[in-house]
Amino acid sequence: MIELKNAAVATSEVCSAARPAEHSGYYHGVTRRAIRAGKVSVSAASAATADALTKCLLADHARRMWRFSESFDARLLAYEFHP
Length: 83
Description:
There is one protein chain. By secondary structure, the protein is α+β, with helices and mostly antiparallel strands. It has a domain at 33-83. Helices cover 27% and strands 27% of the residues. The protein is built from two helices and five strands. The model has no long low-confidence stretch (mean pLDDT 80).
C-alpha cells in the first residue's frame, strides 16, 4: 500500500495488454530505438512529472534514478526490466 499526500503515482508498462490500439509504443527520444520491455512506477509532486519520469526511466533502464530523485523530488516505487 502506498499512502500519498500532495503527490501522485504513475506507472508505465511497455507490453501492457490494456494499451490503446492507437499507441505506437515507446521509443528513446534521442536514439529512436524501440523500448521493448519494462515496467516502472514513480511517485512525484504532480501526475505529469511522475508520468514523464516513467518514460525516462524505461528508456534508461533506471540507471540514473538518483538524478531524477534529486531534480524532481521523485521516488522509484517499482521497476522491472526483462530483455
